[in-house]
Amino acid sequence: MAKLDHKSFLKTVPHKPGIYQMFDAKAQLLYVGKAKDLSKRLKSYFVKAQDGKTLSLVNQIADIEFTITRNEVEALILEHNLIKTHKPRYNVLLKDDKSYPYIQITTQQKYPRMDIYRGAKSKQGEFFGPYPNAYAARKSLHLLQKLFKIRQCRDTFFANRSRPCLQYQIKRCTAPCVAYIEPAQYQEDVQHAVEFLQGKTKNVIAALIAKMDAASIDRKYEEAALYRDQIEMLQQLVQEQHINKGYGFADVCVVYRKAEYAIVTQLFIRQGQVLGHKYYYFKASDWQEDEALLAGFIGQYYLTGKNNEIPAQIITNISINDKTVLEDALKQQAKKQIKVTHQVRKEKQQWLKLAQTNAKEALARHLAAKNHIHERLAALEKFSKLSNIQRIECFDISHMQGSKTVASCVVFDREGPLNQDYRRFNIENIQAGDDYAALAQALTRHYKKRKSQDALLPDLIIIDGGKGQLSKCKAVMEELQLQDIPMMGVSKGPARKAGEEQLWFGEKLSKSLAEDSPALHLIQQIRDEAHRFAIVGHRARRNKAAKTSVLEGIPGVGPAKRQALLKYFGGLQGLKKADVEAIAKVPGMSTALAQRVYDTIKE
Question: Which fold has domain 249-364?
Answer without folding.
Answer: Nucleotidyltransferase; domain 5 (3.30.420)
